[in-house]
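B., you asked whether I could sanity-check this one before it goes into the benchmark set. Here's the sequence:
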Amino acid sequence: MSTTNMNMMMRSTWRSFFKSLDKAESDDIAKLKQLKSEAEVNKKRLVDLQEATNHPLSQSFLNPLAGPPTDAVSDEDEDKDSQNEAETPRIRRNPGNEPATQSHNANDEPGVWLDKPKYMQDWL
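And here's what the prediction gave me:
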């Protein structure tokens, strides 16, 4: 083989090698940009989640570890207590042999508060 042909083959090999390196580098740069943008989104989401967990309404109502709700202003609690006392009816015992009054309101009586549906099977 002549030197010229050998030089041309080497140049061709080097060109393809450098093209593959350039392609790999550009792919890596694109991937790095994508990861940076995802990292920014994830950081913002993390901050939002941390703020949400610190928010007082994020405490679960049924969480046994959550204590009673606390208010910074105790005067409001005292006002609420006095309002509740004023609205709470006093229950008096039946003195002597007087018969207790019975309420015949359907909502006051215990038991089933709805009728059996028309097409409901008996075993249900």
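One thing to flag: The radius of gyration is 40 Å. Otherwise nothing jumped out at me.
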